[in-house]
Write a structure and sequence with these properties.
113 residues, alpha+beta, three-stranded antiparallel β-sheet, 2 helices, 50% helix, elongated
């Protein structure tokens, strides 16, 4: 009787445990990608400032093809943006996050002069 009880408890807990593990993996992927994009945006800004265009920047920095970069000039500031879509693999997590989750890193630089 004890073996049957342990099996039933295991079967009840297993799906919940797997969802937690997959959720942790998804969150790790999101945070890892955020760190990578934050490191890359400094290089993107430097290359934009010397006059390179988006295609040349992507080629020089060897960015993934699904990473999008852009530059918007305003009166006093220039906004630089780098973004990537991350596919969520955990069932039900798309109720909290959109699927794909759009991760956007933005930096604003003051135009002096």
């Amino acid at each position: 009787m004890k073996k049957g009880q342990a099996l039933v408890e295991f079967v009840i807990i297993l799906p919940i445990f797997l969802l937690i593990i997959l959720g942790v993996i998804d969150m790790g992927r999101i945070f890892y990608t955020k760190i990578i994009l934050e490191e890359q945006i400094s290089d993107v800004i430097s290359m934009y400032e010397v006059g390179n265009n988006e295609d040349k920047i992507k080629k020089e920095l060897d960015l993934d093809k699904d990473i999008k970069i852009s530059q918007e000039k305003e009166e006093d500031y220039t906004n630089y943006m780098i973004s990537k879509d991350i596919e969520i693999i955990t069932p039900g997590l798309n109720l909290i996050f959109s699927n794909p989750y759009k991760l956007i890193i933005t930096r604003s630089i003051y135009n002096h002069g």
